[in-house]
């Protein structure tokens, strides 16, 4: 997020390294799956790894790292905040079942 | 505001004096694509959060996917990630002014996107053959599985198919000179977003349901 000039964008060799890194994360996800942990543990691990994978893709493949930092700070925090709010609101739907709100 | 009205409005200084500077130093089409991507990320986020909570709170969910299905998912992931790499090559070639090379890489991206969609459809038809439907689970587990799987993967597959069509349209325009390298770059942004979404869909829809 520091460089603005397109000249500072890396070449294809770097992108191939990023691609290999992403494939390694996918391999770790598959290996973890076949350790057969509980659904909650696996969900937590897969979400963490997917988040790392998506961050790498957004920063390097989508060139967010090489854009004006204001673009990053205007878009990403608010999107993550909205996703966090979604995460907060969904389990609230279970209140209908668990707290007897329909009674 | 110290000058005359004509100075303030830039009259006589040419058309560009009346134009605002680009926001964040990028073209409007690229900013618009970023805004679309953010809103679409929330759409997928809503679907995936709903699925995630339903998945872990359903004791009878089951793990219906055998290894061949997971292997198909792994191949689809490799194909889509590779298409991201070919798209980067296309954008790089377009920016450096090498139009024929850019068009070739765009063609490779479309081909990989089409292979991804074909593998996905093959998987769907295999599941239909086994008795899976939107609200029917042939393994006796939670019937919501079909609804979650077909709606989330279907929405993603629609994005891939639309992406392939858009890349074809942009490639033709870029080849004829109607579009420039910025159009290729903006299309690339969309394609990488489709990649990013799959990075969540594959582990959550396939791996989390592996037998």
Task: Tell me what you see in this structure.
The complex is a heterodimer of chains A (103) and B (211). Chain A has 103 residues and is an all-alpha fold. Chain A has 2 domains: 67 residues; 36 residues. Chain B is elongated, with a radius of gyration of 22 Å. Chain B contains 6 helices and no strands. Chain B has one domain: Up-down Bundle (Four Helix Bundle (Hemerythrin (Met), subunit A)). The N and C termini of chain B lie far apart (71 Å). At the A-B interface, α1, α2 and α3 of A face α2, α3 and α6 of B.
Radius of gyration of chain A: 19 Å
Number of beta strands of chain B: 0
CATH architecture title of chain B: Up-down Bundle
Beta-strand fraction estimate of chain B: under 5%
What is the overall pLDDT average of chain B? Answer: 89
- Count of the separate structural domains of chain B: 1
Report the uncertain regions of chain B. 1-12
Structural class of chain A: mainly alpha
Do you know the CATH topology of chain B? Four Helix Bundle (Hemerythrin (Met), subunit A)
Amino- and carboxy-terminal Cα gap of chain B: 71 Å
Instruction: Estimate percent helicity of chain B.
Output: over 70%
Oligomer: heterodimer
Largest sheet features of chain A: none
Task: State the separation between the terminal residues of chain A, measured CA to CA.
Answer: 53 Å
> What percentage of the residues of chain A does DSSP assign to strands (E)?
under 5%
- Give the largest chain-chain interface (CB within 8 Å): A-B, 44 and 44 residues
Number of helices of chain A: 4
Fold topology:
The complex is a heterodimer of chains A (103) and B (211).
Chain A: H1 12-33, H2 39-61, H3 69-89, H4 95-98
Helix pairs in contact in A: 1-2
Chain B: H1 5-9, H2 28-57, H3 67-95, H4 99-129, H5 144-176, H6 181-206
